[in-house]
Write a structure and sequence with these properties.
- With 339 residues, this protein is α/β, with parallel strands linked by helices.
- It is built from 12 helices and 10 strands.
- The radius of gyration is 29 Å and the shape is extended.
Amino acid sequence: MAFIYDYGLFAAKSITLVTVIALGVITIIAAIARNKMRKGALDITDLSADYQKNKKHLIESLLNKEQRKAFTKEQKKEAKEQKKNAAESTKSRLFLIDFKGGMDAREVSSLREEITAVLTMAKSDDEVLIRVESGGGVVHGYGLGASQLQRIRDQGLYLTVSIDKVAASGGYMMACVAQKIIAAPFAIVGSIGVVAQLPNFNRLLKKHDVDVELHTAGQFKRTLTIFGENDDKAREKFKAELETVHQQFKQFVSEHRPRMDMEQIATGEHWLAAEAKKLGLVDELRTSDDYLLSQFEQKQVIKVTYHNKKGLADRFSHAASLAVERAVYRIIETCKIPF
């Protein structure tokens, strides 16, 4: 009996040890798999080919049987000729990148990958079109976004930015890097200013006899706080920091668009593109669709997109964010607020 007991105890220990090791290995493998799954992928789409395909389909749908037969014959002849002259073709390319930025500017991580990809294959006569849609956000995030666009110009490529809906604050900081800015007439442009706000719960905490201790080394390691008691000195320092950022923002815009009257436009106001054009913030009133349509015949249009694969938590938070955004839009529409 003692032997059986000892053997059973040994077996139980062995099984436990093997189980623990197996769980550890499975955890490591799962972590590696998650990292691999979340690694992004680059998509390259030939929009010119899609354009020609759709154009051909529309033309064919409007022809009768005999006309369609003649058209198909002509298309085959043209395709054969194009294939023959493909090696001698000097058609330049237009690379299209979409940037839709949020408050935290996390989309810049994809933008940098897309721009890097373009720079590895672009030639000196190619053009880059970036469709910017953003109401701004954190300074460091959009500052990095603007620096990414500057890489395109530093490479000697012509950069065009299109604003179909909004490029305000940090969004305009990015847009102004371009040699040319086009915008839809009712797009929102500008907002060259800096804003910051935070609640303070100090009086509420005192009312409930809750103390908050904050220890710092350095006079201005903290200025305004959420839970501590703020004083005028801290407020002045905080305002001074905002003013410093604003001055750098103004200088940055002025360097890229020197003809604008900064005192007139750097007030934090935003304008519709039709008015913004008069102030020099926009060069041309035009949608990105119209601009692309004008380029299809003379350039090969290629869309570059970098997709970050998201985990379950990321997908859930994104869905929740969209739900809140839709709810806000419904409230605005119900209240008939124009913006």
